[in-house]
Amino acid sequence: MNTNAATTNKKDSTYLAQIIREQPELISFLKEGDLFEATLLEKGSRSAYFDLGRFGTGIVYGVEFLNAKNIIKKLEIKETVNAKVVELDNDEGYVELSLAGAQKQQNWHEIKELEEKGESFTVKIVSANSGGLIAEVYETKAFLPVSQLSSEHYPRVEDGDKNKILEELKKLVDQELEVRILDFNPRTNKLIISEKEAVQQNTKEIISQYKTGDIVDCIVSGIADFGVFVRFIDNPVIEGLIHISELDHHLIDNPKEVVKIDDAVKAKITEIKGGQVSLSLKALKENPWDAAKEKFLEGQEITGSVYKFNPFGAYINLKDNFRGLIHISEFGGQEEMRKRLETEKEYSFIIDSVNPSDKRITLKLNKS
Questions:
Q1: How much is the pLDDT for 319?
Q2: Domain-wise residue ranges, the chain
Q3: Please, where are the H alpha helices in the chain?
Q4: CATH assignment of 118-201, given 1.10.10.10, 2.40.50.140, 1.10.150.320, 1.10.357.10?
Q5: What is the model's pTM?
């Protein structure tokens, strides 16, 4: 900076410092942490000077200069930039500024506006870890947890292996995802984003086209222990869940007994709530229990094979895909039951009771 300009600017800053000391109430609105526009006057290898208008001259130097080196390098003389007040009156009488701090503060301001608008926006995924994905929003690192991924991108790893989950997440690096801000805290540099929230926001209007009772064509998109995920063929953005209890009228241990990935199925919508769609396969199937009283009579002798044991007894496979239960009290305990019965082996039983409403056939051992 030339000597005359530096002398003049220093006089202005010294005058400002004097005002601050003698009559602070006149400029009480200028305080540390304030963010405003500053115009570049001169820049050197270790410091840069900025015109603050009626507030005199500001300076960026030391650590703040190093932090803002790239910003200052791109600035032209008389170009304005956001600056943050670090100190009102430093040892040389200048208002000490931070450009990097101002940029960070401005970034959080933009993030806050995004959150308040509640709108979705696009981010590029830059990295992944076992807990989720990393993106950038206004030069600020944002974390997208696995739990906040859409059903399309959620890593469905059957055994829950973290290494397999990470491999699936890595496939999303360099992709662009539509997200919403879920939570943020500038003090702790925490920014959490959600793809699931953005998808739900976009699909609520589409889901409103459907109602409970509608029959839809679907493709099986995922299988879990508790049920099956399906995508609507006419609107693939919508994914619903068929609970394991809604797959068939008889007892299901594993959804894979009924369907497999990419199967085309018809399902009936049973509930639409909070952007979530629940469906049923069994609602479109004839209920075999309606004819159970005709097929099975109390006191009837019948053969069946042992399907599996549970703490209450043993399930028995009967004709026409029905299952009956023989209670453990017939044996006196688990050990005795397992001595008398073997899985997949056929035995003779007597039907003790038939209760179609509870989908239950109770059996006793045929002791004859």
A1: 87
A2: 3-105, 118-201, 209-284, 288-365
A3: 3-22, 63-67, 69-74, 99-117, 162-170, 195-207, 292-295, 334-340
A4: 2.40.50.140
A5: 0.47
